[in-house]
Design a protein that fits this description.
alpha/beta, globular, binds flavin-adenine dinucleotide, eight-stranded mixed β-sheet, FAD/NAD(P)-binding domain
Length: 347
């Protein structure tokens, strides 16, 4: 009798690695192709919240997170250039860990389970077919109409935070600050630049530091930045897409990217991978066709993510509309209901 069929995963970020781990735990042979190397820095708020934590537990990976130094985040605070909210408890605790540590720990775990990781290998974009899963991350959008989105991130020390997660919004975008392993703080921002805007881009340090006189500027005044950790991305596509709109099986940002303001993209990557495991195992064992496996996975992913993608879009619009930022900050500071609702609906 023939053994289980092999799965090829293209992309070794969080989605590809957790899917690979889940499949190896079920004895499925897996080859994973990753364009980069481990460890490496990625643009990410490094704040894991919501149902993705349950997916990590289901995959037996909570010990890996704590072993890699993940910090529990219990409180959050919201700031505009002129208004500060006091720290509030998060409706459920989050985990903060650098992608430098997290992706490398997952790759090591995948290898330890007998997974085959081929790093430094960029697979041509048009690969497809039975046995191939796309986990290649966000789909770049070079020049969408209206605003162009870009992300910046750097690790820093000497950043005095009043909450485990601080969200600072301005007319240009937002910057999240959170404590990560070894006493560091991740400084990560998403910014938009209007197509018609003139003038050169700001230096990353200036862009991440916020407007003069703002609470963000004060936080970062004495910061020492780890230049090696700096990274950037552009061409972000933030319009939601359904898993069913892709002809192949996808996991993580390859399905769609949730606006980063939610801090839920990593969770969605873990969840999509955990959801995909049973159907892919069934295909590997010859118990289902590839088409049936794909249908099951896209239906489950779309059912799991549709609601939060809609809420996330509205939340992102709200916090990025200058006229609404201060009223939202005031409301979120006064009303537990608003605060909890915004958190829960986007997770
Ligand atoms: C500014 C910003 C802040 C964010 N903050 C948060 C946050 O605080 N919390 C949160 O949960 N999420 C956050 N996110 C989202 C989060 O980073 C993503 O959702 C998450 O990285 C998705 O994981 P992934 O594995 O799908 O993609 P990725 O992590 O991007 O991994 C994709 C991998 O595929 C590889 N690859 C691509 N193409 C190929 C190819 N052709 N061949 C081989 N390899 C290939 C890439 O090298 C990469 O390693 C943020 C995103 C941004 C932009």
């Amino acid at each position: 009798m023939a053994g289980p069929q092999s799965i090829t995963i293209v992309g070794g970020g969080l989605a590809g690695l957790t899917l690979g781990i889940g499949l190896r735990q079920q004895g499925v042979p897996v080859i994973l192709h990753e364009a980069g190397q481990y460890p490496r820095h990625r643009v990410c708020g490094e704040f894991i919240s919501g149902r993705g934590q349950a997916a990590l537990v289901a995959l037996g990976l909570e010990g890996l997170m704590t072993g890699a130094g993940a910090v529990s985040a219990q409180t959050a605070a919201f700031f505009t250039a002129t208004r500060s909210s006091s720290p509030r408890p998060l409706p459920s605790p989050a985990l903060c860990l650098s992608r430098f540590a997290l992706d490398a720990a997952l790759a090591e775990k995948f290898r330890a389970l007998g997974g085959d990781v081929q790093t430094g290998q960029r697979v041509p974009a048009d690969f497809t077919g039975e046995g191939f899963v796309r986990a290649t991350g966000r789909r770049a959008q070079a020049s969408p109409a209206g605003a162009r989105w870009f992300g910046l991130k750097v690790h820093a020390r000497n950043v005095p935070l009043v909450a485990d997660l601080e969200m600072h919004v301005s007319s240009e975008g937002y910057v999240g600050l959170c404590r990560i392993e070894n006493g560091g703080v991740n400084v990560c921002g998403l910014f938009r630049r209007r197509a018609e805007e003139k003038g050169g881009a700001k230096h990353w340090r200036e862009q991440l530091s916020g407007p003069p006189g703002s609470p963000l500027r004060q936080r970062l005044a004495g910061a020492s930045f780890d230049q090696e950790s700096f990274c950037s991305i552009a061409g972000l596509a933030l319009s939601p897409r359904q898993a069913a709109s892709h002809p192949e099986i996808c996991v993580g940002d390859a399905i769609t990217m949730i606006p980063p303001v939610t801090g839920n993209g990593m969770s969605m990557a873990f969840e999509a991978s955990a959801l995909a495991v049973p159907a892919l195992v069934a295909w590997s064992r010859g118990e289902s066709s590839w088409a049936d496996a794909r249908l099951k996975i896209v239906q489950e992913c779309d059912a799991a993510f549709a609601g939060r993608l809609v809420w996330a879009r509205w939340l992102q619009r709200l916090v990025l509309t200058p006229l609404l930022q201060n009223p939202f900050a005031a409301l979120a500071a006064r009303s537990d209901w608003v605060w909890r609702r915004a958190f829960e609906k986007t997770r």
